[in-house]
Write a structure and sequence with these properties.
Mean pLDDT: 84
Distance between the termini: 62 Å
Number of helices: 8
Largest sheet: 5 strands, mixed
Helix content: 40-55%
Low-confidence stretches: 210-215
Strand order of the largest sheet: 4-5-6-7-8
Radius of gyration: 22 Å
Order of helices and strands: EHEEHHHHEEHEEEHH
């Protein structure tokens, strides 16, 4: 029996999703319905085949270069931000938008302007949501020194933005050894002094328990005291503060108890 629908199951990462886009493209050209999922479907439908797709950096890179070169940075950014979101159908959304823009020898650089299309509209919404979280972390990441030579920060982002933080903090701290740990996903962004960033998956860090933090904790107490001293009680506005600095960011910031 010839299957009409193909579900490509890939790793929940940009590399995994864009590898699946590469693999699914030919099947869509042949008239099949293609979906991309980051987890196995619980109840596969009839006349559907499920294909596991191992991540391939070369294939993913080809897709990303094609998107950037043919569709421009705005579309490239939109699909990349969607790929790191927590939306359960993000892989399929990315595929459908790229199919709209590139299938049949088209090259629609204005595809993201078609907000009447539900897939484009959803990708646009996800881009904005991920962009806001990413840019908040630019200001909310707090480093502390461990071992006397490494700057360490722990974050718990909703979306998988860890890798996207690399350019910003590499520019800010090019001559420092630092790491940013995504506690929920158990992976760490590593930057050696004068080098380039890399991602390590499956990491379990407990740097907070390191005895080398004792002196740093004293400085953090001084910082907290300073924040308390400059607070004007009559001008406190908890509602506005929560708008500008949501509660989910505060657990990893020394300004807050």
């Amino acid at each position: 029996m010839e299957y009409e629908k193909m579900i490509f199951v890939c790793e929940d990462s940009m590399e995994g999703i864009f590898t699946a886009v590469y693999e699914g493209w030919l099947w869509c050209v042949r008239g099949k319905t293609v979906e991309i999922s980051v987890k196995e479907p619980e109840c596969p439908e009839f006349f559907t085949t499920v294909i596991p797709v191992p991540s391939d950096s070369e294939k993913a890179g080809k897709v990303l270069r094609t998107v950037r070169d043919k569709l421009g940075f705005a579309v490239y950014e939109a699909v990349c931000y969607t790929a790191v979101s927590v939306h359960p159908d993000k892989g399929t959304l990315v595929f459908r938008v790229l199919w709209q823009a590139l299938s049949g020898r088209r090259c629609d650089r204005r595809v993201m302007e078609n907000l009447a299309d539900p897939d484009v509209n959803q990708v646009s919404r996800l881009r904005i949501k991920v962009w806001h979280e990413l840019h908040r972390y630019y200001g909310f990441v707090r480093f502390r020194e461990i071992g006397g030579s490494v700057l360490y920060s722990r974050i718990t982002p909703e979306n998988d933005v860890l890798e996207m933080l690399a350019p910003h903090f590499s520019d800010r701290f090019p001559n420092e050894n630092w790491m940013i740990y995504d506690e929920g996903r158990k992976k760490v962004l590593l930057h050696p002094k004068g080098g380039s960033c890399s991602i390590q998956k499956g990491a379990v860090l407990q740097a907070e328990k390191d005895g080398a933090l004792t002196e740093t904790e004293e400085y953090e107490e001084l910082w907290k005291s300073f924040c308390r001293s400059i607070t004007i009680q009559e001008r406190k506005n908890p509602r506005l503060q929560q708008q500008l600095l949501p509660l989910k960011f505060r657990s990893n910031m020394p300004e807050f108890p």
